[in-house]
Amino acid sequence: MPRTNPYIDEQHSDFGASAEARGWQAGYDAGISAPPDVPQGPLTRHTGFMDAWAEGAAAGNADGRTEGWRLRPVTDNSGFVIKVPGVQPEDSGESGENAGSFTMAWKSVGALPLDLILRQFAPGADGGPHPQLAGHALNQVCADKGGPAQLYLPLCVSPPHGLSGDALLEAGYWHGDVTDSFDDAGRAAGLHAAVRVPHFPGLVRYRPAGAHNFWDWLPLQQGRPEEP
Question: How many domains does the chain have?
């Protein structure tokens, strides 16, 4: 069972989550997506953040070895990079009119898409200025709403949009609207792919995962990368 953030409930009054909570989660995300060794941490002036980051990276590395590695999609000059050594695609497990277009699912980790899903799904209930804990906040919101079991976000690589106020656009990802309908999200991804040069479109699928920034990447079949 994945290790959990031991600092998650620590608060610093009006400043929100503690540096240790944010550091541990950022380290964990890096550790579980960087096989096979524990990654090196960032250099900051906050020793608590750095020490917690190292703890989280070690925990993520241990979970990666036992639970399975996850990937952190990024963009570079060649497009959507989702291959991580040791990470294998799985059946998407979806049904509905769009199921045939999303036949694979990749285990993924990272707070950026979850922060956007949180802001769309529950306006005003965002994770504050520290998106490292977006998964924790989104999990709580889903529990408070009594569901849904999963959420979907259409997504693809796009030229960066500068200072748009949308962190995903600024990072180089087009996205649609979050929905709990697989078919609606699939249609949105397909329509976007049909009117633009394909840039690896697909769906982010979020299923509540406790404090973790876990999600799945379901690539649209026509734009999927080669299987490793």
Answer: 2
